[in-house]
Write a structure and sequence with these properties.
Helix content: 55-70%
Largest sheet: 3 strands, antiparallel
Number of strands: 3
Structural class: alpha+beta
Radius of gyration: 23 Å
Number of helices: 2
Length: 96
């Protein structure tokens, strides 16, 4: 293998490392919680367990202040999802 080819491979590896670092930074910024397995409170904090032994710890004062918005948005999004499922059920029945 020539030096030029080796340098190209090295450049490709460096590019790949940069891409992986960018993906890792993005992964650290966002966490998707599909389902929780524990909810508990102590010392002014709510502890929410999810995934394989992962925990979200939330200050209850901050959470309390945000509850009106959270509740409104959860109800709104849930209504959208329920409508979507109902529409799918109706379509399935119509196909029968």
């Amino acid at each position: 293998m020539s030096i030029k080819e080796k340098n190209k491979q090295i450049d490709n590896l460096i590019d790949e490392v940069h891409k992986l670092k960018k993906q890792l930074r993005s992964a650290k910024k966002n966490t998707y919680i599909y389902e929780t397995h524990h909810l508990q409170c102590s010392d002014g904090e709510m502890h929410i367990g999810y995934g394989d032994d992962n925990w979200l710890v939330w200050n209850t004062d901050s959470l309390y202040k945000d509850l009106p918005f959270i509740i409104t948005q959860v109800v709104k999004e849930n209504k959208k999802m329920q409508k979507m499922y109902l529409d799918m059920i109706k379509e399935s029945i119509d196909e029968l």
